[in-house]
Amino acid sequence: MKIEVGDFVRTKKGIGKILEIKTVQPKMYGKHDVAYLINVCLKMYISKTVFIKHSKDIIDLIEVGDYVNGEHVYKFGQAKNGQKWIHILSGYLLYNKDITTVVTKEQMRNMQYVVGGEQ
Known about the structure:
There is one protein chain. The radius of gyration is 16 Å and the shape is flat. The chain is mostly beta strands and 119 residues long. It folds into two domains: 8-56, no CATH class; 62-111, no CATH class. It starts with 7 loop residues before the first strand and ends in an 8-residue tail after the last helix. The chain has one helix at residues 105-111, and strands spanning 8-11, 14-23, 34-38, 53-55, 67-68, 71-78, 84-88, 93-95, 102-103. The strands form two sheets. Strands 8-7-6-5-9 form a five-stranded antiparallel beta sheet. Strands 3-2-1-4 form a four-stranded antiparallel beta sheet, with no helix packed on it. Strand 6 and strand 7 (84-88) form a beta hairpin.
């Protein structure tokens, strides 16, 4: 699938939206001749190798353990009409149109403070 402006990507830094695609000199980014500006890393272009996965639909990038709209995600499903949903801890089902914020489990691990020592 071709990556385009407006697509969503999951990286180690979180989920972001592609804002710009740029052709670059191969030596700037190793073997890659295309770089991407995403809203998670606004000051630098990154290569496709940094992406864990990408999709036109943000719900495809969410994983169990992430937080959507401040709630822990623990299950996924699909309606009979093919529409995907996520089940959050409070018991609600969220569809793509309901998603306003996403914090990945990796972001949560980076932000956590462990009381009494390291984990």
